[in-house]
TrEMBL record:
GO biological process, one term: regulation of DNA-templated transcription
Cited Pfam families: Trans_reg_C
Keywords: DNA-binding
Molecular function as annotated in GO: DNA binding
Name the record gives this protein: Response regulator transcription factor
Organism: Aliikangiella coralliicola
Keyword Nucleotidyltransferase included in the entry's annotation: no
Start and end residues of each OmpR/PhoB-type domain: 11-110
DNA-binding region: 11-110
CDD domains per the UniProt record, alphabetical: trans_reg_C
Protein's UniProt keywords contain Ion transport: no
C-alpha cells in the first residue's frame, strides 16, 4: 500500500509520478508550471517523501516538524495536509495524492 513511485533525482530533488519536488527550493513543478511551498508545508511533504514506504503518523509529524509542540502542531498537521492537497490540485496533479488513514496518519499514493 505504501510504495509510491518516487525517484531520487539529486540532493533533495525527487520525481513523484510526473511531479518534480525540490525540497531545497521548496518547489513543486509539473510541466512548465511551478509553485512554491511555505516552510512548514515543505517540511511536511519532505518528511512524507523521505518516509515514502510507510505511514507517517500525526504525532511523528508534530515531533519532526513542530518540535513536539502539540498545541500548535495538532492543528498545523491538519492545516498543512489540507494546503498540500490544494496545492497539488491547483497545479493539476492527478497522479499524486496524500491519503489519510483515520486515527493513524498519512501516506503518499502515486497512480
Amino acid at each position: 500500500m505504501y510504495n509510491p513511485n518516487i525517484a531520487h533525482l539529486e540532493s533533495k530533488q525527487f520525481l513523484i509520478g510526473n511531479l518534480i519536488y525540490d525540497a531545497s527550493s521548496q518547489s513543486l513543478s509539473l510541466g512548465t508550471q511551478t509553485i512554491y511551498l511555505r516552510n512548514k508545508l515543505n517540511e511536511v511533504l519532505f518528511h512524507m517523501v523521505a518516509n515514502e514506504s510507510r505511514l507517517v503518523s500525526r504525532s511523528e509529524l508534530i515531533e519532526k516538524v513542530w518540535d513536539g509542540n502539540y498545541y500548535t502542531g495538532a492543528k498545523g498537521v491538519t492545516h498543512s495536509v489540507c494546503k498540500l492537497r490544494k496545492k497539488l490540485n491547483d497545479l493539476g496533479v492527478t497522479q499524486v495524492k496524500i491519503r489519510t488513514l483515520p486515527k493513524q496518519g498519512y501516506y503518499l499514493s502515486v497512480n
